[in-house]
Amino acid sequence: MHKILTLNKIASKGLDLFSRDLYEVASEIGHPDAIIVRSQDMHSFEIPETVKAIARAGAGTNNIPVDTCSQRGIVVFNTPGANANSVKELTLTGMFLASRKIFRGMEWVKSLVGRGDEIPALVEKGKKEFTGNEIRGKKLGVIGLGAIGVDVANDAERLGMIVSGYDPFISVEAAWGLSPSIKKAETLEALISESDYISVHIPLNDQTRGILNRERFSRMKRGVKVLNFSRGGLVNNTDMLEAIQAGIVDRYVTDFPDDSLLREENVIAIPHLGASTPEAEENCAVMAARQLITFLETGNILNSVNFPDCSMPLTTGTRIIIGNRNIPNMVGQITTILAEESMNISEMINRHKDGYAYNIIDVESPGTDALLTKLKGIEGVVMARIIDKK
Ligand SMILES: NC(=O)c1ccc[n+]([C@@H]2O[C@H](COP(=O)([O-])OP(=O)(O)OC[C@H]3O[C@@H](n4cnc5c(N)ncnc54)[C@H](O)[C@@H]3O)[C@@H](O)[C@H]2O)c1
Ligand SMILES: O=C(O)CC[C@@H](O)C(=O)O
């Protein structure tokens, strides 16, 4: 029986994939094998020793201590693209909200309640206070062309915007999905200096924290509208408020409000609703659950952020999976131990990503605790597990 701990509310469509004869799933559970989480901050959460994998039902993994997980051999998954459409739709909404004074107009019109037959004339007289601009023909700069950025760029172009993108690490898959008429910006500075709208779609990490700061605001066009549906920490809020006061930023639309932003009327603050649709929540939960089930039952890895994608069909009744630091002579030491234990290898695969490697080894005889202890004893091995399918 595998035990799955849920942090946050996870859509039942995903949790229902864990068959109840093989899995126990609960928000409170002792000795969990895996965790499914959404936005809960796990940096101060004590991850139990028994945890083998954490699945983030969502894109961003900055709420998970990924480096510590890697050192402990815990595989961290996310669900790339599963909520992209929802975030894209809210980003486009944000562009309209930044362009037309929809909320202010709505608030004002409500103040006319009780004015009876005068209302139509008052509306016609008062509406000039709430004019805005079209987005068609305006320049949009998209920072980060991953699942969300590509969708935003393509749909904004369909709406008539002139779109440029900046992403020095764009994946081949994302590049294939991007409309060919979207211009590639060579530098972030070039992108931000020519854009009427700037939308940020990158992960928050040590390299991207505060990427929009005073220096960058000083290069932007006066009246630019900035959208942030990625993470609050990507924007230096003090510098943003200064840029608004200086008339550089006309509107800041953010899914990540804080006290200072809520006090500024040119900030359009949304309570982290980017992925809050049943469609996105279900897609993420289903993808996260499938990835955990596959990993726990077969050892195959798909969509991990800290270990390489690595899959092989089961070829025998016994599979050994081993994660190790990506250092020389690991495979040699592993296969030597298997030979010492007289284990014949049927199939084997080894992949690496950044500082870690992962091995799947199908063997022709059952594994033993002694074998597992030996494998775990190799300097550099961070996890080892035997999966017996007989
Ligand atoms: N508001 C929400 O509810 C919500 C929902 C989903 C995702 N997000 C956030 O949006 C982010 C993007 O999501 P995604 O699904 O598109 O992720 P993704 O991994 O598909 O795309 C991220 C892209 O950013 C690029 N990138 C990384 N560093 C960069 C840099 N310094 N400059 C330019 N590009 C850079 C990567 O190459 C990649 O193409 C997530 O990391 C998450 O923080 C927010
Ligand atoms: O789970 C959520 O509601 C937000 C998820 C979002 O921030 C993400 O990074 O995918």
From TrEMBL:
EC number annotated for this UniProt entry: 1.1.1.399, 1.1.1.95
GO molecular function, one term: NAD binding
Catalysed reactions, semicolon-separated: (2R)-3-phosphoglycerate + NAD(+) = 3-phosphooxypyruvate + NADH + H(+); (R)-2-hydroxyglutarate + NAD(+) = 2-oxoglutarate + NADH + H(+)
ACT domain boundaries: 319-389
Enzyme superclass (EC): oxidoreductase
PROSITE patterns: ACT (PS51671), D_2_HYDROXYACID_DH_1 (PS00065)
Described purpose of this protein according to its UniProt entry: Catalyzes the reversible oxidation of 3-phospho-D-glycerate to 3-phosphonooxypyruvate, the first step of the phosphorylated L-serine biosynthesis pathway. Also catalyzes the reversible oxidation of 2-hydroxyglutarate to 2-oxoglutarate.
Family membership noted in the UniProt record: Belongs to the D-isomer specific 2-hydroxyacid dehydrogenase family.
Name used for this protein in its record: D-3-phosphoglycerate dehydrogenase
Keywords of this entry: NAD, Oxidoreductase
Source organism superkingdom: Bacteria
Pathway membership, UniProt: Amino-acid biosynthesis; L-serine biosynthesis; L-serine from 3-phospho-D-glycerate: step 1/3
InterPro entries hit by this protein: ACT-like_dom_sf (IPR045865), ACT_dom (IPR002912), D-isomer_2_OHA_DH_cat_dom (IPR006139), D-isomer_DH_CS1 (IPR029752), D-isomer_DH_NAD-bd (IPR006140), NAD(P)-bd_dom_sf (IPR036291)
CDD domains assigned: ACT_3PGDH, PGDH_like_3
